[in-house]
Amino acid sequence: MSEDKGFELRFCNSASCALAVVNTEELLPKLEKILENANLGAFYQSLGLKGKKRRCFRVAVAACPNACTQVHIADYGIIGQAVPALEGDCNTCGVCVDVCEEEAITLFEDRFPMINFEYCINCGACIRACPQDALKAESLGYKILVGGKLGRHPMLAKEVFALVSAEKAAEILDKTISFYQKHCKSGERLRVIIEKLGWDTYLAAIS
After folding, report:
1. Over the stretch 121-135, which tens digit does the pLDDT of each residue have?
2. Strand duo 76-86 + 135-146: pairing
3. I want to staple 14 with a disulfide (CB 3.0 to 4.6 A). Which of 24, 82, 162, 201 is the partner?
4. DSSP 27-79
């Protein structure tokens, strides 16, 4: 984190992680450019804030739902997603059922895996484990979380988009920062502003 820059960008090394479901190398330069262009360090200085409290807009990127970069307490969090689908011949070995920690997969009449997407978190574990390569990623993308924070009144970030492209994730960040700079008056965190103005106001601003 650079206090002078006014932002923190945390990310995992998707290229070397066996659990990664997306390659974030395409996304990271887009995010960094948006953060640099926002001049958040100068923005915080322009507020004339008193005291030595650090002001920082936090962005975190995780290449899989294990979220090792603590996306849930960032102002803006991005999580890689791999939506599984049966696209090959299944031998009903049950490996996908065994590896699914969410218990989202059952073998339908011992013929093929049935995925309950109310429980599935798109982590890709079943895809990696399938010995027949019968399970594939039907689509790849990013989940967007907004408004995480610690401090006196901690709050976990809330999901605002379930599956978007790298370009869309960057676009939403750009609009989120614009919303933040428009309404931030005393260096407060993004979640404080959203709770004050309402989620509908924020969602309208980024639509």
Report:
1. 999 999 999 999 999
2. antiparallel
3. 24
4. HHHHHHHHHHHTTHHHHHHHTT--SS----EEEEEESSTT-TT-GGGSSEEEE
Going by C-alpha positions, the residue among 204, 175, 163, 186 that lies closest to residue 43 is 186
Q: What are the pLDDT digits (tens) for 138-183?
A: 999 999 999 999 989 999 999 999 999 999 999 999 999 999 999 9
The CA distance from 93 to 4, in Å, is: 55
Residue ranges and CATH numbers for the domains of the chain are 7-82+140-206 (3.30.413.10)
Q: What is the pLDDT of residue 27?
A: 95
The pTM of this model reads 0.93
**Confidence at residue 3, expressed as pLDDT on a 0 to 100 scale:** 53
Side-by-side strand order, sheet with 76-86: 7-11, 57-62, 76-86, 135-146, 158-164
CA nearest neighbour of 124 among 63, 205, 185: 63
- Report the C-alpha gap between 204 and 144 in whole angstroms: 16
Residue 146 DSSP class: E
* Region of residue 14 (phi > 0: left; psi between -120 and 50: alpha; otherwise: beta): alpha
Q: What is the spatial distance between Cα 51 and Cα 105, in angstroms, rounded to a whole number?
A: 53
